[in-house]
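Retry 2 of 3 after timeout on previous attempt. Resubmitting structure tokens to design endpoint.
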């Protein structure tokens, strides 16, 4: 079992930065790939970024490439999403998700979810 707790969201002006954290409870967390997803009001939940269980491979949605960076610290059981140059269209609830030995690139492939953290970017 893996329990995920998302944090770090908030209100920021366009062009600003935030760092989201996904803290996991469970000794086997280092065996899980982790992804960040987001869901804006009235829209489907979409993939944002993912990192492999060893941290050697990352993947990003085209809309965030060059602005967001995903990383993980397995010693701290935590995955981070550094978000720079934020835009109003990045406003959404952000969720982390974990999948055993694979990166969850789609909602259906995730085994566990965090509770979500709100990110609001003002123009």
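Retry 2 succeeded. Sequence:
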């Amino acid at each position: 079992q893996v329990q995920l707790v998302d944090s770090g969201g908030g209100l920021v002006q366009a062009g600003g930065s935030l760092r989201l954290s996904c803290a996991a409870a469970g000794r086997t967390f280092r065996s899980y790939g982790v992804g960040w997803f987001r869901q804006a009001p009235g829209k489907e939940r979409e993939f944002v970024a993912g990192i492999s269980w060893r941290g050697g491979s990352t993947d990003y949605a085209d809309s965030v490439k060059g602005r967001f960076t995903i990383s993980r610290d397995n010693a701290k059981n935590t995955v981070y999403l550094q978000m720079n140059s934020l835009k109003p269209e990045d406003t959404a609830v952000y969720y982390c998700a974990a999948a055993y030995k694979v990166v969850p690139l789609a909602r259906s492939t995730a085994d566990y979810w965090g509770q979500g953290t709100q990110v609001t970017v003002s123009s």
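Attempt log closed. The mean pLDDT is 94.
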